[in-house]
Design brief:
- The complex is a heterodimer of chains A (about 110) and B (about 110).
- Chain A is mostly beta strands and about 110 residues long.
- The radius of gyration of chain A is 13 Å and the shape is globular.
- The mean pLDDT of chain A is about 95.
- Chain B is an all-beta fold and about 110 residues long.
- Chain B is globular, with a radius of gyration of 13 Å.
- The model of chain B has no long low-confidence stretch (mean pLDDT about 90).
- Classes of the chains: A mainly beta (about 110), B mainly beta (about 110).
- Chains A and B meet through strand 5, strand 9 and strand 10 of A and strand 5, strand 9 and strand 10 of B.
């Protein structure tokens, strides 16, 4: 039972390069989220989706784009990476809007030089 | 925006001790999450509670909605409990499932 899978797990980019993080869940969840985690700070929501074909901005959306073309996949894109986007990125999913348990991926560590 | 504060930030305990981690939040909410982040970085959900108390094994979570406060207790602590414990509550009372996360409590249990 895979749960939530993120790829890649590690990536090093140069400033200005682009990349896409893939989140896949096999639990048929409607709700999916992308967070970033920085030292000394709590997880912060970047973007989220409440169903296939929908996306919405979270707390820190600038510099990121997302797409949810298929229910099981939620993609996070960096069009022009900046050193400030060096972080650990977590994807999560849940079945219910308000009360569902959150299931997290293992995280993707991104370094932008 | 909901402000979420955890205490203590760091906690070192001897194996077998009873541990309490506290979480306070500023916006009245209907549910609060407790998460555990392993040393390897993975995050798992421990509890989600909206009132009273929940128990799972040696872990107990309580919440007082009126006081906007929750606690996570670990009984008979073990070195494998060493992890970062994170609480999270909805961003606002009308939030569409956005959560505000505390910065976490680093727990180290010594053998």
């Amino acid at each position: 039972n895979a749960g939530v899978t993120q790829t890649p797990k590690f990536r090093v980019l140069k400033t200005g390069q682009s990349m896409t993080l893939l989140c896949a869940q096999d639990m048929n969840h409607e709700y999916m989220y992308w967070y970033r985690q920085d030292p000394g700070m709590g997880l912060r929501l970047i973007h989220y989706s409440v169903g296939e074909g929908t996306t919405a901005k979270g707390e820190v959306p600038d510099g990121y784009n997302v797409s949810r073309l298929k229910k099981q996949n939620f993609l996070l894109g960096l069009e022009s990476a900046a050193p400030s986007q060096t972080s650990v990125y977590f994807c999560a999913s849940s079945e219910d809007r308000y009360t569902g348990e959150l299931f997290f991926g293992e995280g993707s560590r991104l370094t932008v030089l | 925006k909901n402000e979420v504060e955890q205490s203590p930030q760091n906690l070192t305990a001897q194996e077998g001790e009873f541990i309490t981690i506290n979480c306070s939040y500023s916006v009245g909410i209907s549910a609060l999450h407790w998460l555990q982040q392993h040393p390897g970085g993975g995050i798992v959900s421990l509890f989600m509670l909206s009132s009273g108390k929940k128990k799972h094994g040696r872990l107990i979570a309580t919440i007082n909605i009126q006081e906007k406060h929750s606690s996570l207790h670990i009984t008979a602590s073990h070195p494998r409990d060493s992890a970062v414990y994170i609480c999270a509550s909805p961003f606002s009372s009308g939030s569409a499932r956005q959560l505000t996360f505390g910065s976490g409590t680093q727990l180290t249990v010594l053998p």
